[in-house]
């Protein structure tokens, strides 16, 4: 079984490989560029077969296409956002700016005053239609941008109608009774805590 | 020199250790709980001194206090957000929900219609006062939640007046001419790309 964390690192490797102009890259360079140890890079890529040649590194194009295939980005990422508040709106507008292999297909909310509003190229739809929209659009991924108290019931509905991956911003565990759904929690305060180190670091120099 | 990525993992270890009820924990358990290999955990912690005893693991309380000290959370994280739009507002309201060691002290914007508005416990201030606010409040960390075209000029101002760490949401590189400022870019589409793998994974079972 491939550890989830290895999967989470692949998009960062892919982003860098897509912009890389070289023909070959070593695990040291790929690690430095993305912030991981060269052992971690080698270990991650080894889960998916041996692409590198000892001492010569990896073929950039081949590795790029391999990661693209592993992440199944060739099918396109069909996601929806539940919660058209501040966070949901910021995400929909950001993704629409052209991350071509990720597409947000629908934006749902429960507030009658927000339903029907245009956000980017989407019109906010009612969360009542969640099951229909997942089925009609073939949605596999949902972003949970609802308040804490709404998160568990909404996530249960997502699991029941076939969504298999959830990016969860709400500060509560969801889908604990649905082992077939992969839930990735996000907490941006962890990023701020890490930055605290660098503030201190700089002061000492 | 400690790799940046090792620092970024520490808050995830700390979050788990803070909730852990056991007296001791091994690198395998800490790794499984946070999604990293046990080698990665050992390697990360070894940068800061040897806390673990081979075969017995780490003392949870001691490790927690050590990471807390390494991240300098004892001083509290004093951050500000520039850009009081959707993302900035969502962040301020979220952090205010009680992540005690991270505090957003100020929220700035350039739009006269937003300046003066109350968001959580903060009143939006004018970005004209950026330098004064950084000095008066002793701000070390800034979150960049402004549009792409405003990001570089705002980040330069932050660097010039002493901010040493920036969480950058804008899709453009900032502070490239200020090596003393640590910039952490954030791209939530990478999280969505990683989830694509899990959708495919589940379908195959
Ligand atoms: N993890 C992080 O780093 C982080 C950062 C910011 C915000 N958050 C969290 O993300 C969530 C959204 O934050 P926000 O600032 O956008 O909040 P918000 O209040 O602006 O938006 C929430 C939206 O959800 C809608 N909603 C409520 N119940 C619903 C339901 N049952 N079905 C569908 N929609 C529903 C509301 O009408 C509202 O539009 C919150 O839970 C917040 O705590 C997390
Ligand atoms: N990286 C990611 O995953 C991600 C996700 C969502 C949004 N974003 C990015 O985050 C940024 C903010 O997104 P948003 O949805 O909140 O946008 P928004 O338009 O809602 O908010 C931007 C705010 O910045 C203010 N602003 C503009 N110029 C400014 C300046 N010079 N100084 C201070 N404030 C200024 C505007 O008045 C506005 O209130 C954008 O760059 C967006 O692309 C990134």
Output the keywords:
binds nicotinamide-adenine-dinucleotide; homodimer; 18% strand; two-stranded antiparallel sheet; Arc Repressor Mutant, subunit A; alpha/beta; six-stranded parallel sheet; 45% helix; Rossmann fold; 8 helices; 205 residues
What do you see in this structure?
Chain A has helices spanning 4-19, 27-34, 38-46, 60-70, 86-95, 130-137, 148-160, 188-204, and strands spanning 24-25, 58-59, 77-82, 102-109, 118-119, 122-123, 125-126, 141-144, 165-168, 182-185. With 205 residues, chain A is of the alpha/beta class. Chain A has 2 domains: 4-71, Winged helix-like DNA-binding domain superfamily/Winged helix DNA-binding domain (Arc Repressor Mutant, subunit A), CATH 1.10.10.10; 76-189, NAD(P)-binding Rossmann-like Domain (Rossmann fold, 3-Layer(aba) Sandwich), CATH 3.40.50.720. In chain A, the strands form 3 sheets. Chain A has a 6-stranded parallel β-sheet with strand order 7-4-3-8-9-10, sandwiched between helices. In chain A, strands 1-2 form a two-stranded antiparallel ribbon. In chain A, helix 2 (27-34) crosses helix 3 (38-46). The first copy, chain A, is globular and about 60 Å long. The interface between A and B is large, with 68 and 67 residues. The structure holds nicotinamide-adenine-dinucleotide (2 copies).
Task: Put the structure in a nutshell.
Two copies of one chain form a homodimer. The first copy, chain A, starts with a helix and ends with a helix.
Give a topology summary.
Two copies of one chain form a homodimer.
Chain A: H1 4-19, E1 24-25, H2 27-34, H3 38-46, E2 58-59, H4 60-70, E3 77-82, H5 86-95, E4 102-109, E5 118-119, E6 122-123, E7 125-126, H6 130-137, E8 141-144, H7 148-160, E9 165-168, E10 182-185, H8 188-204
Parallel strand pairs in A: 3-4, 3-8, 4-7, 8-9, 9-10
Antiparallel strand pairs in A: 1-2, 5-6
The complex binds nicotinamide-adenine-dinucleotide (2 copies).
